[in-house]
Design goal:
five-stranded antiparallel β-sheet, Rossmann fold, Alpha-Beta Plaits, about 30% helix, 7 helices, six-stranded parallel β-sheet, 11 strands
Length: about 220
């Protein structure tokens, strides 16, 4: 994949390193030479000194044939301008913009832009950790309406089946890790002590699930 990253702060640097380590063709744009230098001598991608939404800098980075573009600078406005240029002018298939002010998210969504807000994600994650009840929430979707949770199979759940913990439209067992291998379960799949279960759960059904697990089903 050919990837362009605009902004070489802490986030941009990490994304660039991750993508490069996976073998992707990575180009990083930043107008501060010292920021590009933080990538270090081992970075295999290209570094372009320039403004991330400047046409010439983008063309030099290879945007005309890019598969993905990430705007990760410290400026919401710069990120959105760059993302819109990448998507609307150069028709890059995958475009993501970093967003600091979550109050702007709805506006940008109306523009058809995919945004990532570390502020919103962090707030939801802290809330989950503060209110945790022994069930480990791995990830939230949307504004937290659906959660992916992880639980260990206890003796109470041993030899129970996925159907015993499934609530249509509210709780579903999406994967089981057994002896280091992932299993895609059916309703008749039995749990074994030592298994790790991953469940998708409607936030409104968390108390119902906790009660179910506490009763040993």
């Amino acid at each position: 994949m050919k990837v362009i990253i605009m902004g070489c702060g802490r986030v941009g640097e990490q994304v660039a390193r991750l993508m490069s380590a996976e073998g992707h063709d990575v180009a990083v744009i930043d107008y501060v030479a010292e920021s590009l230098a933080r990538l270090g001598p081992d970075f295999k991608g290209r570094r372009i000194k320039g403004v991330g939404f400047d046409r010439q800098a983008l063309i030099e980075a290879g945007i005309e044939t890019a598969d993905a573009f990430a705007a990760t600078s410290s400026s919401d406005n710069a990120n959105i301008v760059a993302a819109r240029v990448a998507r609307n002018v150069f028709r890059v298939p995958r475009v993501v913009a970093r967003l600091f002010d979550p109050r702007r998210a709805e506006i940008y969504q109306r523009l058809g832009l995919v945004t990532i807000s570390s502020t919103t994600w962090g707030a939801h994650r802290i809330h989950e950790l503060l209110t945790a009840s022994g069930i480990d929430c791995v990830m939230s979707f949307g504004a937290g309406e659906v959660k992916l949770i992880q639980i260990e199979v206890t003796p109470q759940l041993d030899r129970r089946m996925a159907k015993h913990i499934t609530i249509p439209g509210e709780v579903s067992v999406v994967a089981i890790i057994r002896n280091g291998q992932a299993i895609f379960p059916t309703l008749g799949t039995e749990f074994k002590q030592g298994d790790t279960l991953y469940l998708s759960v409607q936030a409104a059904a968390m108390e119902r699930l906790e009660s179910l697990l506490g009763e040993g089903i």
